[in-house]
C-alpha cells in the first residue's frame, strides 16, 4: 500500500487509470507503437492522420449509437441511414444556394426524421428497438434501390467536397467536425439532466418512469440524435469518397456497435461514456488498416476482423452479472 | 379454461399443460389460418401435390432459422450470425457432397460444423460472459469469412438426386419439418430441454433449484447452430449449388419470425409452436407478394412495414387496455 | 441432545469485495425443531442461508451435513442431502406450469424423459400440503404473488426435505395462507424435519419457533432457546439496545381540506371508487394481497391508465396524464419492489437521490455536481445513511435502499406521498424511522397514503384505513374503530373467501 493511493488526487488518478476508456486508449497506443516498428510508414504522421480521418466516420455513427445503447436500446438502422444520406445528397440540387448548405441541412433533417420514426415505434408502439430498427433498415434498403438504382452518384455539392477534402491548419475538416461533435456529445451526456435521464432509463426503465423521467420524449430524442449523427457521417463519407452508392454505409453497423462496446459502454444500457467510444473507433480503424497491410483474401480479412474484435472483447468487454 | 379440476385427475398433466401453452398463440394461429385460406383461394395450386411441395419448400428454411433464433431467445440470448451460419452450411454442402466424402459425409460435416460453431459461440457467451449480440455480430464476420474461404464465389454442386429429393416434386420438406418438430417435443421433455425456460427467465432461481443453467444455454446454442447449417444444406439443395452470401437475409427474417410468433427478448417468453407459426406467416406474406407481382424492392419495403405493423399492433392494443 | 445436527455451519466467514458480511458464525439445525434466524437487514441472514444451501461457499469455517464437513457444497449437492430452501426472491418461471415449476431441477424421469404422470402425482401431493387447489397445468405467471409463494413452498416440500429453510415466507401471504403455513410447519416439525425460519414478524416467531439465533452486523449475538424470552428481548438483541415503542406517539393533524378527491375512479382492478384524501392525514389502504390496492396508487399517480368522473388533485381538476404531470402536481410514489421499481442498483447513491430532479429540470440545463453532492449529503445525514455516497445502490442493505427510495422525493417537497408497502422486508430500526417520517410528514400538513400488508402498521399509524376487496373500497375505518380484527374481517368479507388467483 503506497500512500499516494490514499490521497484524493491519487484516488481520482487511480479511477481514471482503471477505467475502461483509458484501457482502450492504452490498447490503441500500444498497437500504434508496435505497428510503426513492424510496418514502415504506419507510424508516419500522414498515415496516422488518415486513420483518424477514417475513424471520424465511425465516431460520428457511434456517437448516436452510444446515446441509444446507454438509454437501453440499439440502433441497427445506422448503416442504412448513412447510405440514405450519402445517396440522396447528390440528388438534391444545390445551384440555388452556392454554398450547398441548404442541401446538407435538408438531408440532415431527413435522416433525423428517420431516427424520430424509429423513436416513435420504440416509444409509442412499444416495438422492441432491435425489431424496429432492423425493419427500418429493410424498409430503407428497398427505398434506396427505388431512388438511386444500382449506380453510383457523384457529389458536386461544394460544402460536401470541402468537408471531405479540406485541411484547415493541416487538420482534416472531417476530424474537426468529429472533435466538435464529440465535445457537444460529451457535454450532453455527462453535464445535462438529459444525459442523466438516459443513464437512468438504460439501467432500469421502470424505476426511471416511476421517478418521473419522460420516457417517450427522451426515447424520441435519442433515436433522433442517432439519425442525425448517422446523416452527418453520411455527408462526411460522401465528401471523402466523392461518390455515393447503395451499400456505402454497410460497414458502419458493426463498426458503430463494436466501437461502443470496445469503449466500455454496456450493451445492456445504463453504463458507459462516449469518451470510450472515441478510442474505440480509432482502434477499429487501426485493426482494419493492419488487416489491409497483411494483404489477405476477403475471406481471411473478414475472419481476422471478427476474431480481433472478439479477442478485444475478451480483454475488455465482460459484462458483470446483473439481477 | 379449467381442463383439470380436482386432485383426482392429477394423472392427466401433459396435455392440459400443452393446451395452456396454446392460449397465448391462439390469435396468431387464427391469423395464420386466415392467411392460408386466402392464399389457397388466390392460388388454388396450393392444394395440388406440386403446389404443396413448392410451398413447404419455400417455408422450410425459414422455419428452421426461426426455430434456431427462438431457442436462443428463450434462453435470453440472441444471434446475429444466423445468416452467416446458413451460408456456411450451404457452401460446405456444395463443396463436399460431390467430393470424396459423399452425401452422407457431407451431411455429417454440415451437422458437425453447426453443432461445433454453435457450441463454441454458446461457450463464449455463457462461460466467458460476453454479450450475445456483440459476440454473434463479430461471429457473423468470422463465419461469413470462413464461407468465403471455402467458396469465394457461387459454385460447387449438390448431387442431382438429392436436390430432386429435397426440393423436387416431393413432400420431403414437410416430412422433415414434422420430424424436426417431433424431435423438438422430445427434447423439451428432457429435463435439459424444459430448463431452457427457467434458464432464460429466472437464471438465479433456476440455478438454486439445481438446474444446469449454463449447460442448458450452451446446448441451446449448439442446437441452434445445427438448425442453421441444416437450413443451409437445404438451401443449397434448392439452388443446386453453394453461394457464400446466400443466407444473409435469414438473420432479420429469423428474428422477425420469432417475434411475430410471440417470442420475447427477455428470455423464457413464448413457445416454439408460436415461432413456427410466425415463420409460416412471414413465408405466406413473402409468397403472396411474389405472386402479386411485387418487385423485390417493393417486397423489402412492404416487409419492413408488415413486420413493424405485426409487432406493434398487438403491443399497442395491450397498452390501450 | 446426542444426535448430530442435520445441517450446521461451524465458524463460517464470508466477505464480498473485502467487506466482511459474516464473521465466525455457527448455527446448528436439529431435527424436529423450528429454529428462528433473526437480524436486521444487512446483518448477514441471506448470506448465511446461501452458505447453508451451497449457493455460496464460505471463505473460512465449514458447512456440516450430519456432522461431517462438506468441502464443495453446491445447490445440487444440497438437494441430494435433503436441504430445501424457500428463497425470499422466488425461483419460479412464470411461463412454466405449477407442476413443472415444482419439479424443476428434480424431475422424475422415465427413459431419460420427463415422466409427466409421476410428476403430476408428486406435485399434487406437495400442493395438497400447502392448500394449493389450482390445476397443476396453470402457468405460474397467472397466479397472484401470495399463491406463487405457496408454489415456492410446495416446490421445497416436493423434494421431501430433511432440512427446510424459509426466508421470510409470509411477507406476501394473506392471513389465511399464513395460517395454513404455520400449521404445516408444526406438522413437519412433528415428523422430525429441521426447519430454519427467517421472519421480521416477531409474533410469528414467538408462536412458531423453539430456538433462536440472532445476527447483528455479521456476528452471532444469541444462540439460545426461545423459552423465557419476550419480543422486546429479541429486539434488544437484534438492534443492540432497548427497543422502545415501534410506533411513534402522535396527535391527529388532519384538516378538513382534501388533497386528493376522486369520484367513480377506475384503474386496473379498481372499479368505480370514491375516495377523499385529506391533507394532514395518513390514510391506510388495507386488504388481502392483490385486490387492486396497487392499481389505486398507480392510477392516481398517472402510471397506468385510469378513468374518473371527477377528480381534484392538489387543486388541479383532472387526473395526471403521466408521471411527470403527477410529480408537477406534487405527488410522489414509493414502490414496493425497490430493486425493480424504485432504484437504479448499478448507479451511485447520489445519482439515485437526484433522479427526480433530473427528470423535472429542463433537459439541457447544465448539472452542478457540487450542488448534487451537497443535496445528497444533506439527505443522507437527515436519514442516517452512512458511508460513501458514490457506492452503487446495490451495496446498501434493504432498509437503507428503502430510505434512498424515499429520500429522493424530499427535495421536491411533495404535497402527497403515495407509498406501496414501504416497510416490506425492512428491519425494525428502519421501520421505526420510516414511521416517524410519515407522521412528521402528515403533521406538516401533507397527505400520506400508506398501502400496507402489515396490519399492525395500519392500526397504529393511520388516521383512517380504507379496506379494499375485489376492486372496491368495502370499508372506511376511522381511527377510533381501528383494530386488526376489524381490518381483517372487512378484508375477508362476511364469509371466508378464497383469494382470487
From TrEMBL, chain A:
Membrane topology note: Multi-pass membrane protein
What InterPro entries does the database record attribute to this sequence? ABC_transp_permease
Q: Which organism is it from?
A: Mesorhizobium ventifaucium
Q: Which cellular compartments is it found in?
A: Cell membrane
Which keywords are on file for this protein? Answer: Cell membrane, Membrane, Transmembrane, Transmembrane helix
State which residue ranges cross the membrane. 21-38, 50-71, 78-96, 102-125, 132-155, 175-199, 252-271, 278-294, 300-317
Name-wise, this protein is: Ribose ABC transport system, permease protein RbsC (TC 3.A.1.2.1)
Give any Pfam family that matches. BPD_transp_2
Keyword Oxidoreductase among record annotations: no
UniProtKB/TrEMBL annotation, chain B:
Q: Which residues cross the membrane?
A: 23-47, 59-92, 104-126, 133-152, 172-197, 218-239, 245-267, 274-294
Q: How does it sit in the membrane?
A: Multi-pass membrane protein
Where does it live in the cell?
A: Cell membrane
In terms of superkingdom, the source organism counts as Bacteria
Report keywords, A-Z: Cell inner membrane, Cell membrane, Membrane, Transmembrane, Transmembrane helix, Transport
Residue ranges annotated as coiled coil are: none
Instruction: State whether it acts alone or in a complex, and with which partners, per the record.
Output: The complex is composed of two ATP-binding proteins (LsrA), two transmembrane proteins (LsrC and LsrD) and a solute-binding protein (LsrB).
* Purpose: Part of the ABC transporter complex LsrABCD involved in autoinducer 2 (AI-2) import. Probably responsible for the translocation of the substrate across the membrane.
**This protein's name:** Autoinducer 2 import system permease protein LsrD
Upper lineage ranks? Bacteria, Pseudomonadati, Pseudomonadota, Alphaproteobacteria, Hyphomicrobiales
Amino acid at each position: 500500500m503506497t500512500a499516494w493511493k490514499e490521497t484524493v488526487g491519487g484516488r481520482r488518478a487511480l479511477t481514471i487509470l482503471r477505467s475502461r476508456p483509458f484501457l482502450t486508449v492504452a490498447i490503441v497506443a500500444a498497437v500504434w507503437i508496435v505497428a510503426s516498428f513492424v510496418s514502415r510508414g504506419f507510424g508516419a504522421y500522414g498515415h496516422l492522420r488518415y486513420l483518424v480521418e477514417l475513424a471520424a466516420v465511425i465516431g460520428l455513427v457511434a456517437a448516436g449509437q452510444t446515446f441509444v445503447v446507454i438509454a437501453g436500446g440499439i440502433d441497427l438502422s445506422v448503416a442504412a441511414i448513412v447510405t440514405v444520406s450519402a445517396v440522396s445528397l447528390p440528388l438534391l440540387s444545390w445551384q440555388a444556394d452556392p454554398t450547398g448548405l441548404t442541401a446538407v441541412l435538408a438531408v440532415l433533417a431527413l435522416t433525423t426524421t428517420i431516427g424520430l420514426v424509429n423513436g416513435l415505434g420504440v416509444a409509442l408502439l412499444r416495438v422492441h428497438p432491435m425489431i424496429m430498427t432492423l425493419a427500418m433498415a429493410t424498409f430503407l434498403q428497398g427505398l434506396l434501390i427505388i431512388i438511386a438504382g444500382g449506380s453510383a452518384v457523384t457529389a458536386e455539392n461544394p460544402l460536401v467536397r470541402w468537408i471531405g477534402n479540406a485541411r484547415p491548419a493541416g487538420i482534416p475538416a472531417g476530424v474537426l467536425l468529429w472533435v466538435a461533435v464529440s465535445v457537444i456529445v460529451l457535454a450532453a451526456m455527462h453535464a445535462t439532466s438529459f444525459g442523466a435521464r438516459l443513464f437512468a432509463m438504460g439501467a432500469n426503465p421502470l424505476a426511471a418512469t416511476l421517478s418521473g423521467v419522460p420516457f417517450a420524449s427522451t426515447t424520441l430524442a435519442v433515436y433522433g440524435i442517432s439519425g442525425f449523427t448517422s446523416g452527418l457521417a453520411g455527408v462526411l463519407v460522401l465528401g471523402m469518397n466523392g461518390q455515393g452508392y447503395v451499400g456505402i454505409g454497410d460497414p458502419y453497423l458493426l463498426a458503430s456497435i463494436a466501437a461502443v462496446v470496445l469503449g466500455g459502454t454496456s450493451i445492456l444500457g445504463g453504463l458507459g461514456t462516449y469518451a470510450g467510444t472515441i478510442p474505440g473507433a480509432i482502434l477499429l480503424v487501426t485493426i482494419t488498416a493492419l488487416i489491409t497491410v497483411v494483404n489477405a483474401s476477403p475471406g481471411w480479412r473478414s475472419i481476422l476482423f471478427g476474431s480481433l474484435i472478439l479477442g478485444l472483447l475478451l480483454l475488455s468487454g465482460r459484462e458483470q452479472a446483473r439481477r | 379454461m379449467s381442463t383439470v379440476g380436482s386432485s383426482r385427475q392429477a394423472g392427466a398433466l401433459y396435455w392440459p399443460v400443452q393446451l395452456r401453452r396454446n392460449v397465448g398463440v391462439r390469435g396468431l394461429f387464427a391469423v395464420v389460418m386466415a392467411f392460408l385460406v386466402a392464399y389457397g383461394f388466390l392460388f388454388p395450386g396450393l392444394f395440388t401435390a406440386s403446389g404443396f411441395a413448392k410451398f413447404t419448400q419455400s417455408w422450410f428454411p425459414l422455419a428452421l432459422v426461426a426455430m434456431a433464433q427462438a431457442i436462443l431467445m428463450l434462453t435470453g440470448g440472441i444471434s446475429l450470425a444466423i445468416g452467416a451460419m446458413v451460408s456456411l452450411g450451404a457452401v460446405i454442402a456444395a463443396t463436399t457432397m460431390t467430393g470424396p466424402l459423399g452425401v452422407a459425409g457431407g451431411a455429417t460435416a454440415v451437422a458437425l460444423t453447426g453443432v461445433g460453431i454453435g457450441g463454441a459461440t454458446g461457450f463464449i457467451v455463457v462461460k466467458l460472459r460476453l454479450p450475445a449480440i456483440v459476440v454473434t455480430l463479430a461471429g457473423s464476420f468470422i463465419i461469413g469469412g470462413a464461407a468465403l474461404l471455402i467458396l469465394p464465389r457461387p459454385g460447387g454442386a449438390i448431387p442431382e438426386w438429392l436436390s430432386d429429393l429435397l426440393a423436387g416434386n416431393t413432400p420431403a420438406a414437410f416430412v422433415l419439418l414434422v420430424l424436426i418438430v417431433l424431435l423438438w417435443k422430445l427434447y423439451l421433455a428432457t429435463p435439459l430441454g424444459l430448463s431452457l425456460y427457467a434458464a432464460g427467465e429466472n437464471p438465479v432461481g433456476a440455478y438454486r433449484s439445481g438446474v444446469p443453467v449454463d449447460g442448458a444455454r450452451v446446448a441451446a446454442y449448439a442446437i441452434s447452430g445445427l438448425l442453421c447449417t441444416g437450413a443451409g444444406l437445404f438451401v443449397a439443395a434448392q439452388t443446386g449449388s453453394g453461394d457464400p452470401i446466400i443466407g444473409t437475409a435469414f438473420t432479420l427474417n429469423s428474428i422477425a419470425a420469432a417475434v411475430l410468433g410471440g417470442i420475447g427478448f427477455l428470455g423464457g417468453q413464448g413457445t416454439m409452436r408460436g415461432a413456427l407459426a410466425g415463420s409460416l406467416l412471414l413465408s405466406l406474406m413473402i409468397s403472396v407478394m411474389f405472386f402479386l407481382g411485387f418487385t423485390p424492392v417493393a417486397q423489402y419495403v412492404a416487409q419492413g412495414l408488415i413486420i413493424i405493423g405485426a409487432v406493434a399492433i398487438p403491443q399497442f392494443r395491450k397498452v390501450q387496455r | 441432545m446426542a444426535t448430530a445436527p442435520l445441517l450446521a455451519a461451524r465458524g463460517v466467514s464470508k466477505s464480498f469485495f473485502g467487506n466482511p458480511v459474516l464473521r465466525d458464525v455457527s448455527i446448528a439445525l436439529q431435527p424436529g425443531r423450528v429454529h428462528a434466524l433473526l437480524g436486521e437487514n444487512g446483518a448477514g441472514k441471506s448470506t448465511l442461508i446461501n452458505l447453508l444451501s451451497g449457493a455460496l461457499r464460505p471463505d473460512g469455517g465449514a458447512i456440516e451435513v450430519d456432522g461431517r464437513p462438506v468441502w464443495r457444497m453446491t445447490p445440487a449437492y444440497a438437494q441430494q442431502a435433503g436441504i430445501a430452501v424457500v428463497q425470499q426472491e422466488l425461483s419460479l418461471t412464470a411461463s412454466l406450469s405449477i407442476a413443472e415449476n415444482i419439479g424443476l431441477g428434480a424431475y422424475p424421469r422415465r427413459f431419460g424423459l420427463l415422466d409427466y404422470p409421476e410428476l403430476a402425482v408428486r406435485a399434487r401431493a406437495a400442493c395438497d400440503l400447502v392448500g394449493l387447489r389450482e390445476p397443476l397445468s396453470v402457468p405460474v405467471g397467472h397466479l397472484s404473488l401470495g399463491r406463487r409463494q405457496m408454489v415456492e413452498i410446495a416446490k421445497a416440500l416436493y423434494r421431501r426435505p430433511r432440512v427446510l429453510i424459509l426466508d421470510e415466507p409470509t411477507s406476501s401471504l394473506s392471513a389465511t395462507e399464513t395460517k395454513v403455513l404455520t400449521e404445516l410447519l408444526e406438522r413437519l416439525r412433528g415428523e422430525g424435519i429441521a426447519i430454519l425460519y427467517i421472519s421480521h414478524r416477531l409474533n410469528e416467531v414467538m408462536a412458531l419457533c423453539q430456538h433462536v439465533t440472532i445476527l447483528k452486523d455479521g456476528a452471532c449475538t444469541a444462540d439460545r432457546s426461545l423459552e423465557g424470552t419476550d419480543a422486546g428481548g429479541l429486539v434488544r438483541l437484534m438492534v443492540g439496545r432497548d427497543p422502545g415503542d415501534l410506533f411513534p406517539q402522535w396527535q391527529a393533524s388532519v384538516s378538513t381540506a382534501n388533497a386528493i378527491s376522486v369520484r367513480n375512479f377506475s384503474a386496473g382492478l379498481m372499479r368505480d371508487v370514491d375516495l377523499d384524501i385529506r391533507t394532514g392525514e395518513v390514510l391506510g389502504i388495507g386488504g388481502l394481497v392483490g385486490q387492486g390496492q396497487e392499481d389505486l396508487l398507480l392510477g392516481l399517480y398517472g402510471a397506468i391508465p385510469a378513468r374518473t368522473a371527477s377528480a381534484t388533485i392538489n387543486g388541479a381538476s383532472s387526473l395526471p396524464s403521466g408521471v411527470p404531470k403527477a410529480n408537477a402536481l406534487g405527488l410522489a410514489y414509493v414502490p414496493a419492489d425497490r430493486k425493480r421499481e424504485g432504484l437504479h442498483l448499478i448507479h451511485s447513491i447520489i445519482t439515485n437521490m437526484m433522479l427526480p430532479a433530473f427528470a423535472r429540470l429542463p433537459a439541457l440545463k447544465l448539472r452542478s455536481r457540487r450542488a448534487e453532492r451537497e443535496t445528497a449529503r444533506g439527505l443522507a445525514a437527515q436519514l442516517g445513511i452512512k458511508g460513501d455516497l458514490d457506492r452503487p445502490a446495490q451495496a446498501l442493505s434493504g432498509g437503507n435502499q428503502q430510505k434512498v427510495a424515499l429520500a429522493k422525493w424530499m427535495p421536491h417537497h411533495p404535497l402527497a406521498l403515495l407509498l406501496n408497502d414501504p416497510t416490506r422486508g425492512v428491519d425494525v430500526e428502519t421501520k421505526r424511522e420510516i414511521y416517524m417520517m410519515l407522521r412528521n410528514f402528515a403533521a406538516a400538513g401533507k397527505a400520506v397514503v400508506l398501502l400496507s400488508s402489515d396490519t399492525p402498521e395500519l392500526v397504529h399509524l393511520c388516521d383512517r384505513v380504507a379496506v379494499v376487496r375485489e376492486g372496491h373500497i368495502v370499508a372506511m375505518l376511522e381511527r377510533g374503530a381501528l383494530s386488526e380484527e376489524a381490518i381483517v374481517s372487512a378484508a375477508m368479507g362476511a364469509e371466508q373467501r378464497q383469494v382470487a388467483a
